[in-house]
Write a structure and sequence with these properties.
heterodimer, A: about 60 residues, mainly alpha, globular, B: about 550 residues, 8-stranded mixed β-sheet, 13 helices
Chain lengths: ~60, ~550
């Protein structure tokens, strides 16, 4: 994905979060994350992403 | 105070800020006399717009204002962004050794005004009236009557052929004509502080997101001449803007940040202001004999430094067109191309500025959350770091301009299309080392790429044309091999041939403002094509 496509994706997700509202944001992101993780080649790869996200969230 | 009012002023510029003064200097350079009316007594207070783009430096160079500008200003090519205290982005703008101008230069706005003013006085024909406020504007069939008030309270009226509103975001001229800016504003606010402090730090754009010195805030820092730092920081949504600019609230935050980055020299505040991002524009920059430029025409977000730079680009686009029209060399429809081209530029500036603002001052929960995620992910994923990039101002392509000549199908695979800024290149001239963009800023320029010693007969008519002023056409041969002379520049490094996708006999026509108007490979028909292009600009616009 090039810079322009990342920007489009970033903006689309930001607007989507705003549309569903703060109370539904966690559900939205969990649904999205599970969808994307299910497209990983295997559970090991998916777990790496989960652990990285956990580590970054704790910063 | 008794003042002499002429029967008519060719051009009256309302507003003596950086755009108005630069426009006056450019008009004078093209031989157009003008008045400039400015409500303030002298150049502005506070540093205001401080980042001058390469394109703006070129425009100021057309009137010789680049020399003091580059001597005084601090040039820079890139910047760094930090999340808390960890670097997450290091960007550099395109730059090369021995370039004419750096991609960006920091300088206080009052210096830009001073240098533009000096350039206007040098060119002659500019009457600068400080402490003079425009009160009323009355468009007439053959001009515009402008009522103004001098410092002593006296009211006067003068008629002008053309009124150019460069009178800022709260334009009196705009209000007098009942015109409204359209668009939106963002709620997020930034405090702007100038401080004086000695520093040895490199000149670059510095940004901190959620720094330990000011948790939750965003801080930008730029060095300016005279040992001045510009510091911008984001204030929380719940903070009162009046309280936010009080020194007792500003100075501790500044001190905390200076402590954090290790700037320990004594310092003092010079200027404090507050800002919120706006994306506003008039739907047209021409209303009969009244034209709008700079903040009077459009307000764009501060992030990406498109405010003053777009205003100077307005001045650069308008000056030659207005000169041609005012001097009777072109029909007034040429001025409609000023509006359409610069409206296009504003739309692009607003688009980029809005993107930057969504990151720098997130307008809602969605963008705030995504920024938090992007900054964290940038620590480990280089692919998302572009989201943090401030998207600095760059020249806009005038797509679809009525002045653009059609491209010859697939004749070119690179170079600059009609409507794009003519590329820069380092050259040898008869005066020594120089740059291609130094050819621009006066009349039209035909660049003929050739290594042949003799000029083809087909091009001879181009050397004999005697159009006056900004309508003049200058033929310049860009050779890879010949010696430089009055009509030949030598492209020793091959930059020009490469950047213009040139082959033997390639011809480019460049507008007085350095934009490509057309380009041709077929030398036999090129003179006729150039003639068509110039006629299009000078005569046919009414039918466009």
């Amino acid at each position: 994905m090039d810079n322009a496509q990342i920007e489009i994706t970033y903006t689309a997700l930001a607007e989507c979060i705003a549309r569903v509202g703060e109370t539904k944001t966690s559900l939205l992101l969990a649904t999205l994350a599970l969808d994307l993780l299910s497209q990983q080649p295997d559970a090991e790869a998916a777990l790496r992403h989960i652990l990285q996200a956990e580590r970054l969230a704790k910063i | 105070m008794s003042i002499s009012i002429p029967g008519k002023v060719p051009v009256l510029v309302a507003g003596g800020g950086p755009v108005g003064l630069s426009l006056a200097a450019l008009l004078a350079h093209h031989g157009v006399r003008c008045w400039v009316l400015e409500a303030d007594a002298t150049w502005c207070e506070g540093s205001r717009a401080i980042c001058i783009s390469r394109r703006s430096q070129e425009i100021l160079g057309w009137v010789g204002a680049d020399r003091p500008l580059t001597a005084k200003g601090l040039s820079w090519v890139g910047g760094r962004s930090y999340f808390r205290d960890t670097e997450v982005l290091h960007f550099e703008m395109p730059s090369e050794p021995a370039e004419r101008f750096a991609p960006m230069l920091n300088i206080q706005q009052y210096y830009v005004e001073q240098y533009a003013h000096a350039a206007a006085l040098r060119a002659g024909g500019v009457e600068m009236r400080w402490s003079t406020r425009v009160n009323a504007v009355r468009p007439q069939a053959s001009g515009v009557d402008v009522e103004f008030q001098t410092e002593d309270g006296q009211i006067h009226c003068v008629r002008t052929d053309w009124l150019v509103a460069c009178d800022g975001g709260r334009s009196t001229v705009r209000e007098q004509l009942g015109l409204q800016l359209e668009g939106m504003q963002y709620e997020g606010r930034y405090v702007i502080v100038d401080i004086e402090q000695d520093t040895e730090r490199k000149v670059e754009r510095l940004a901190w997101f959620d720094p330990p010195s000011n948790p939750g805030s965003t801080i930008l820092m730029h060095r300016q001449p005279d040992n001045v730092w510009r510091i911008d920081y984001q204030v929380a949504d719940h903070e009162d803007p009046v309280e936010a600019v009080k020194p007792e609230n500003v100075l501790p935050r500044v001190q905390a940040h200076l402590d954090m980055i290790g700037e320990t020299a004594p310092w003092k505040p010079l200027w404090i202001s507050i800002y919120n991002a706006k994306c506003l524009t008039l739907p047209s920059y021409r209303s009969g004999r009244v034209l709008f430029a700079g903040d009077a025409a459009h307000l764009v977000p501060i992030f990406g430094v498109r405010g003053l730079n777009s205003g100077l680009d307005d001045a650069g686009n308008l000056a030659w067109k207005l000169a041609l029209v005012q001097q009777g060399h072109a029909g007034d429809a040429l001025l409609d191309s000023y509006s359409s081209e610069r409206i296009l530029a504003t739309r692009e500036n607003i688009s980029f500025g809005a993107k930057s603002t969504e990151f720098m001052a997130p307008p809602h929960h969605g963008f705030a959350l995504m920024r938090e995620a992007a900054l964290r992910l940038a620590l480990v994923a280089p692919g998302v770091r572009s989201l943090i990039n401030p998207r600095q101002s760059s020249p806009v392509e005038y797509v679809g301009s009525p002045l653009n000549q059609p491209d010859q199908g697939s004749a070119f695979t690179g170079g600059a299309r009609a409507g794009m800024p003519a590329p820069e290149a380092m050259l040898q001239t008869s005066h020594g080392r120089g740059h291609l963009t130094q050819l621009f800023g006066s009349g039209f320029v035909a660049l003929y790429f050739s290594n042949q010693p003799l000029l083809p007969a087909a091009l001879q008519p181009l050397t004999e044309a005697s159009r006056p002023g900004a309508a003049a056409l200058r033929l310049v041969r860009v050779s890879g091999e010949q010696a430089p002379d009055a009509r030949t520049v030598v492209d020793e490094l091959g930059q020009a041939w490469r950047r213009y996708d040139a082959a033997e006999g390639t011809l480019y026509l460049v507008r007085p403002d350095g934009y490509v108007m057309g380009r041709w490979r077929d030398l036999a028909s090129a003179p006729a094509n150039i003639d068509v292009a110039l006629k299009r600009a000078l005569e046919d616009m009414d039918h466009g």
